[in-house]
Specification:
single chain, about 170 residues, mainly alpha, rod-shaped
Amino acid sequence: MDWSSIISELPDTIPVVVGGLLAIGGGVAGQYLTERLTHNREEKKLIREKGEALVRALYAHRDWFEMTWKAVLTRDTTHDAPSPLDEAVALQLLYFPELKRNLQELELAFYPLYQVITDQREEQLKDWTAWSARIPQHLAAYREKYVPYLAAWHAAVTAVTKAVRLRIGA
């Protein structure tokens, strides 16, 4: 076999081979870069959506609690909806482990306030007339426990907002 003709054509094939390798490498790199950017965008979108859901659950909890208190004041026994705080805690556990302390503080501020409502309901059931004569004292007890709850609630909402902004780079 005559190698001289093959060797004479070799310089013409090098640019074709290099071009082919560059095309394959560019395709692989482009695909990787596109996948990476898409993944980052989807992750940021998920964090933003879950952060919004967590804030909505915190607002819903505050509203739920106020409705529960109003139900006690008006002797309305139909307000039996479950607390949205459970949803907030679930979202925190799944997506925002760094907010554990904030949600625990909110729960700790919530329980004494909920105890006030439970106690009021029990007093109502025993003697409505005696209970209604002391409404100003009941409101004062409620407000006393509501202030720390509201402070913990504001701190939790602020912490969620900061956590989401930090993780999505906003």
